[in-house]
Specification:
The complex is a heterodimer.
Chain A lengths: L2 H21 L2 E3 L5 E5 L2 H6 L2 H35 L2 H12 L6 H12 L4 H8 L13 H25 L3 H9 L4 H29 L3 H5 L8 H10 L4 H35 L1
Antiparallel strand pairs in A: 1-2
Chain B lengths: L5 H25 L16 H8 L1 H35 L3 H6 L2 H4 L2 H14 L6 H25 L3 H9 L4 H30 L2 H6 L6 H11 L3 H25 L15
Helix pairs in contact in B: 1-12, 2-12, 3-7, 3-9, 3-11, 7-9, 8-9, 9-12
Chain lengths: 276, 266
């Protein structure tokens, strides 16, 4: 029963990954050819400050997106899990998920309509006489982060909600009854219990943000480039597949480091849960 | 976290939903605007919808996307259901249990590039087939995860009763197990179908010259702001809402034969 899916994944997931790994250490030839000669040239090139800079910029924007999603999503998850009645809870959850089911590109496009020089926001600002000249709201880091937050916020709220909903409210009441102030109760009782939800939400938001292509392309307009755009160009424009593969490898290394960090945090939180 | 904070949090929820829905709502309103400019309202009109339905490129891309989504869903459900059964019933390997979710943790750009390299190496021409294969790779993981949840809530004693009464394994599976887990399978199918319709990055790398609907939308957006996209957005929103309502109606427990409490919550 396991065989069909596992064979399918071996062929169309494991083999392609292995291929990318191998290609990263071959030479790129003219016209997109791959010369099957082992080399470390691509690794050296990827370590060039120019490319390390783009990588760092991508990690930074994805981390910022994740942090903002956590800040925005946490109060919402608390509200849905603890303040809403069972009926409204379902409705609120559907309302949170619904935008996520509309096409991601269209949701990104909505921000172009809002923020471009002839867009809705500039029109409103000029109409109210707040600005004389349209503002350049698009094509910067802030627009990219805004687009990513807008796109992935539901992926943060849902796991947070699931974690908070599982907590027995009496545990918190016990803490406050025993004299803990609300903030302390939150930190020492609630936080350890919802860390798995926080970690899951952060991974769900960080991973697609880091590897995103359309948002930095459409809202960053080449001025806020991320690793995905770089990879895209190596494969479809410059056609240097070995170097592109090395960049994919770099992305994978970052994500693996993240997963190690994740399991570390989860193990720590479990220990805290047992000890205290 | 007492009563006094309640209004503040409710106001926050309002603001959050405004943030989530206003951009989409503006697209819906603008799709009926006679003017090409987003800042000028020149009256109600259906002209962008008319243009959309005359746009053969868009219509063709929708057809392509539907074909891909249906095929990828069928493959994913077949592989995913078998995988879910295999893991729930015949193994207790934690590595495998967690490994099932691995395809969901790989960024789309990595999956897309990997498959592009692979298809190029084995000289499989890019097109509808390659996108179907690509989508079934993560579709299988989603299907397995959703069907497993349903299987875990399934009371096996009903199955055992059927076997004890002398019904063979295959009829027992078809008449007892399958109907019991079918809401899970249908939910999984709807999720995979919706995600496939929406999927852009992997399709972008594995479609070659074939244009799926998201790829079409992408090139329209890159070409420039046109109200035709607003019409597309409105129709897609309606479509997704219909799918969600449909999924809810199918998956919700019904009448006296409803699932016991706890079964639906996971």
């Amino acid at each position: 029963m396991l065989a069909p899916a596992l064979i399918w994944w071996a062929i169309f997931l494991a083999l392609p990954m292995g291929l990318v790994l191998a290609t990263a250490f071959f030479k790129g030839g003219a016209y997109g050819a791959i010369i099957y000669e082992p080399t470390l040239r691509n690794l050296g090139r990827a370590l060039d400050p120019l490319y390390v800079g783009v990588l760092w910029h991508s990690v930074w924007l994805a981390a910022l997106t994740t942090a903002i999603c956590l800040l925005l999503g946490y109060p919402a998850a608390v509200y849905i899990a603890t303040r809403a009645s069972a009926r409204t809870r379902t409705l609120l959850l559907v309302l949170v998920i619904l935008p996520f089911w509309t096409n991601f590109l269209i949701r990104t496009y909505a921000w172009i309509v809002l923020l471009n020089r002839e867009g809705v926001v500039n029109g409103a600002l000029e109409g109210l006489g707040i600005v004389d000249e349209p503002l350049s709201l698009l094509y910067n880091d802030a627009a990219v982060v805004l687009g990513l937050v807008y796109g992935y916020l539901p992926l943060m709220i849902l796991p947070l909600y699931a974690a908070i909903e599982r907590i027995n409210p009496e545990v918190l009441e016990a803490a406050t009854d025993l004299g803990a102030r609300p903030l302390r109760a939150l930190r020492t009782v609630m936080l350890p219990l919802i860390i798995p939800g926080i970690v899951a939400g952060c991974v769900f938001v960080f991973v697609p943000s880091l590897g995103n292509i359309p948002v930095p392309e459409l809202l960053g307009g080449g001025r806020s480039e991320m690793i995905g755009n770089l990879i895209n160009r190596q494969f479809l424009t410059t056609r240097d597949w070995p170097f592109g593969s090395m960049l994919v490898l770099a992305l994978m290394v970052i994500l693996m480091a993240l997963l190690v960090l994740q399991s570390f945090v989860l193990r720590r939180s479990r220990q805290v849960g047992i000890d205290g | 976290m007492g009563e006094p904070r309640r209004p503040l949090l409710a106001v926050y929820m309002g603001a959050l939903f405004a943030f989530l829905y206003l951009p989409i709502a503006i697209l819906v309103v603008l799709s009926f605007n006679d003017s090409k400019l987003a800042t000028v309202w020149r009256g109600f009109s259906l002209r962008w919808y008319e243009e959309l339905f005359r746009d053969t490129e868009v219509l063709l891309s929708i057809r392509t996307t539907l074909v891909i989504a249906i095929a990828a869903t069928v493959l994913s459900i077949a592989f995913g259901t078998l995988l879910a059964f295999g893991i729930e019933r015949y193994t207790r390997s934690p590595a495998l249990e967690n490994g099932v979710y691995l395809p969901l943790l790989i960024p789309d750009v990595v999956t897309g590039i990997g498959l592009l390299s692979f298809f190029a190496t084995i000289s499989l021409p890019l097109g509808t087939t390659t996108v179907i294969i690509a989508h079934s790779v993560w579709g299988t993981a989603f299907a397995a995860a959703i069907v497993r949840t349903r299987l875990r809530g399934f009371d096996r004693s009903i199955e055992e009763a059927s076997l004890d009464l002398g019904v063979r394994e295959v009829p027992t599976f078809l008449r007892i197990t399958l109907p019991a887990i079918s809401p899970g399978i249908i939910a999984a199918a709807l999720v995979v179908f919706t995600l496939s319709i929406d999927e852009f990055i992997i399709a972008y790398f594995t479609a070659g010259q074939t244009v799926t609907f998201p790829i079409q939308v992408y090139s329209m957006i890159r070409f420039g702001v046109t109200p035709e996209i607003n019409a597309v957005a409105t129709l897609m929103l309606l479509f997704s809402m219909a799918l969600i309502v449909g999924a809810y109606l199918i998956a919700r427990p019904r009448g006296p034969r409803a699932a016991r409490p706890g079964e639906e919550t996971e």
